[in-house]
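Re: the 326-residue chain
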Amino acid sequence: MAGRFLHRALALGLVLAAAWGAFTGAEARADTVTAAQRRAAGEFLAALAAGNAQAVAYAIHPGELDRLRLSVMARLREEAARGESTLRARLFGPAVPLDDVERMTSLSFYQAVGRRLSLRARAYEEVEGVGAVREADGVVHVLVRGRQPKERGQVRVVELVTLMPYGKEWKATLPGEIEARLEDLLAGRAEAGRPGSGTAEPAVAAAGSGGGGQAGAAVNSREILGLLDAAEKALVEGRCEDYYRQHLSPTLRDSLSARALASLVASCRNSIANRELLIAALRIVRKLPPRYDMGGSRASYDVSGQGLAYDRFILEQVAGRWYVAE
């Protein structure tokens, strides 16, 4: 039964390819799958199965990555010209400025975006070639049959991967599924809480406005919001010394040498980019639900997927006052 289905699928693919060729004038013919094509298809499917954005980027043809980057960058520049940043925040997190995105290569661009697409595929121990349809422009649609690991059962799965020549080798074209998921992300249709979506799960309010020492997500208290406002104001006005000496936790400040603290202040004062990153972190935290612990004197925030260099932001309460602790 499985064999009959496979042959029908292949026959249908060949018929469609021939029909397309007749309609467009392009020639398409059935070929056997070469070792290089099978290898390229296997590498692409393995990268998807691993959920590794870097591996997926390396398995896709560089020309396809260039096309994707140019298309998205045009939209980001148009958005920036209007004084907006919604699309950039959805792709990279609100803390990543457009200048940093501009400096990304097509490879690093996809790596950053791909982590938010949450793509997955079946893992195969081996793939074997079934058939290929070559188009006039050199693109080849390759049908392979994947053998799953023994613990996943005996069913072999047919996969279609479209390839482009890459020197003497082959690389995958950008699948429509990736482009569709990217469009979903740009349009704000990404599922909340989905791994890699960069959106937080809905907060479950804890009893009490300040956490009351109870574990679980809660809302930012007035005292915390006051700290975030004052710290942001100091940075916006360029008062870096005030930020580090008045709003940094005494516990953390005492753990720093005078030289290290002076270096932080100088870095903030001399670099607008560093200051903007600190401001972005405060604004991000303001919108997120904290998780209280240490008897309600410590608030931690999950800032993963927000474009910051870290995944956690910590505030702590010392002598009844809140400070930035990490």
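The chain has two domains: 2-182, 222-324.
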